[in-house]
# Entry
Amino acid sequence: RNKLMNKIKIMGGSSTEGRIRIQSGDFQSSAWLEKNGTISCEVHVLPKIFRSLYKNDNLPIPRIIRLLLFIFDQAKPIVKVLIIGFLSIMIFKLLFPGYKPLFPMSEDNKPFIELPIWIYQVLPYVFFGSLFFLSKFFIGPWHGAEHMAIAAYERTGSTEISYIKKENPVNPKCGGRFVLPIILAQYLSHLVPHELVLIRAISPWVGIEICLWIDKLVGLDKIPVFSQASTLLQKYITTSQPREIQLLTAQSAIRALVNAHK
# Structure
């Protein structure tokens, strides 16, 4: 009972092949499997801005900003560069919706101008599509172990491997619960007439913000269609049953995070 009363609040986690990260409002713990089969672990204190946001949930800051900061903090350096580039382009589009390129398109330079635009538009779908299908085989077990370690701690307050093994790798609180709502929001944004340039530009972000508020106030995992979509996504694509070494890695991550708060 004491463990349950004193347990820390888990803000979220992320997994890649061989590595599991779990985060509270103050620390991020990372455990990974070394080439020689041993497990290493480290904990670092979150930047002050992140700690302030997590501890002051009622501050008038858009929830999409909070989400992007969380993703940014979890991301690898190359992903951080891509996020900054993507946001820079979106901000530029919002500030200059009627911008015309310095080099007008002609038959001579059309392929050179259209190709980068096409890559920019298609690459995210290719990247995330590949990530989903590859994750089942490479990231899925690590993702499942992360879910099980967090669920065991939240349910029992324990980081013991015996409790972790009893949990389900499919977790209703997984970030996968946002996939269907965000797809719907993006689809609805495309229904905005092209003439309304500014509204069309901001509508996808407004849609995501609405999804995040619904999750905060109601819980997307409480809405059957979204909950079921998340369960199917995890069951068939993003998670799978972990092996012993993956469970031990997840245990190291959650245990180090808990110890950092003592």
